[in-house]
Design a protein that fits this description.
The chain is built from 12 helices and 13 strands. It is an alpha/beta fold and 328 residues long. It folds into 2 domains: 170 residues, Response regulator (Rossmann fold), CATH 3.40.50; 146 residues, 3-Layer(aba) Sandwich (Rossmann fold). Helix 9 links the parallel strand 10 and strand 11.
Length: 328
């Protein structure tokens, strides 16, 4: 098993530093505030980077007012509980979580005392994170990402991108209750769009690697990536798609930057900025229980035109006009 690790850092060197053009901090912390970030990813995510930038925009100064420690589990949800407990032992003042369900539940199980702000929960009431969107209760609040609602739109855009799209492979972590809960939405969308959804339940990273390596062009017309990073399924999808010349639709833009065809989701960096405002309120005395869950305000469609050309695809002008970003 990999040994995930904790870094207290000014995030990654080379990140764009946002100018302090926002308001001055109402009441500068009397001491350095330690923010523990928990993620299933391989390091700071766009949401965590957005959180940092949001705090800077609010007038907080890194290493003087706050420091962010990132604890990541490299796609292994089984390690989240231990990672969350380590943040608690480290004495962080606030925990922020990325990717929604698994990470937020791990943090919630680890502490009922330290404030928790989640970034990107798809259905925080349904999975038992909060009592209601207006009054979360307990020590937790955050920003939702509406990903269950966005799933059908993601599939619809995928069909627009690929002429003759009939069969879509949907691999998912069968041990992830949140991934399984999204299946009915995708099935309904597939029926409505006249698409055959080829479901591939996976239970281990080894099984995911082997199953996706066997996919051949002609068996399916494209691959739809799940929202969650568990079992490294999105990474294996990218590898298989590049080797077999298959189009892909992802949740977030990072894999599109590495060769995926397209992605559509709530803007993770903006969710991080919204979370920064919630952190600010907590630092100034607000209780998470009283801070309503915020909904996303910005959505991103990202397309990799270089990948489209390699696949022999001509992106319809109607889709290009809706894209927030086109990677050349």
């Amino acid at each position: 098993m990999r040994a995930p690790w904790l870094r207290l850092l000014a995030l990654a060197a080379g990140l764009t530093i946002v100018g302090l053009m926002g308001r001055a901090v109402a009441a500068p912390p009397a001491r350095l505030i330690k923010i523990g970030a928990l993620t299933e990813s391989w390091g700071p995510t766009p949401a965590i980077i957005g959180l940092r930038e949001g705090l800077l925009e609010l007038g907080y100064r890194e290493n003087e007012h706050f420091v962010i420690g990132v604890r990541f589990t490299q796609g292994n949800p089984a390690e989240l509980a231990a990672a969350a407990r380590e943040l608690v032992r480290h004495g962080v003042d606030i925990i922020v979580t990325a990717e929604g369900g698994n990470t937020a539940k791990a943090a919630q199980a680890a502490t009922s005392r330290i404030p928790i702000v989640f970034m990107g929960g798809s259905d925080p009431v349904g999975i038992g994170l909060v009592q209601s969107l207006a009054h979360p209760g307990g020590n937790i609040t955050g920003t939702a990402d509406l990903d269950i609602d966005l799933g059908p739109k993601r599939m619809e855009i995928f069909r627009e991108l690929i002429p003759g799209l009939k069969r879509i492979l949907l691999p998912y972590d069968a041990t992830n209750a949140y991934a399984v809960a999204q299946l009915p939405t995708y099935r309904d969308a597939a029926r409505r769009l006249g698409i055959t959804l080829v479901e591939r339940p996976l239970r281990t990273e080894e099984e995911a690697r082997a199953a996706l390596a066997k996919i051949r062009k002609g068996e399916v017309d494209g691959i739809l990536s799940p929202r969650f990073l568990s079992l490294n399924i999105p990474g294996f999808i990218l590898d298989a798609a590049q080797k077999q010349g298959l189009p892909t639709m992802f949740h977030g833009f990072s894999l599109v930057e590495h060769g995926g065809l397209a992605a559509y989701s709530a803007a993770d960096s903006q969710l991080g900025r919204q979370a920064a405002r919630l952190v600010d309120k907590i630092l100034n005395g607000a209780k998470p229980a009283d801070l309503p869950i915020e909904q996303p305000t910005t959505f991103e469609l990202v397309i990799n035109s270089k990948t489209a050309k390699a696949l022999g695809l001509s992106i319809p002008p109607s889709v290009l006009l809706r894209a927030n970003r086109v990677i050349e």
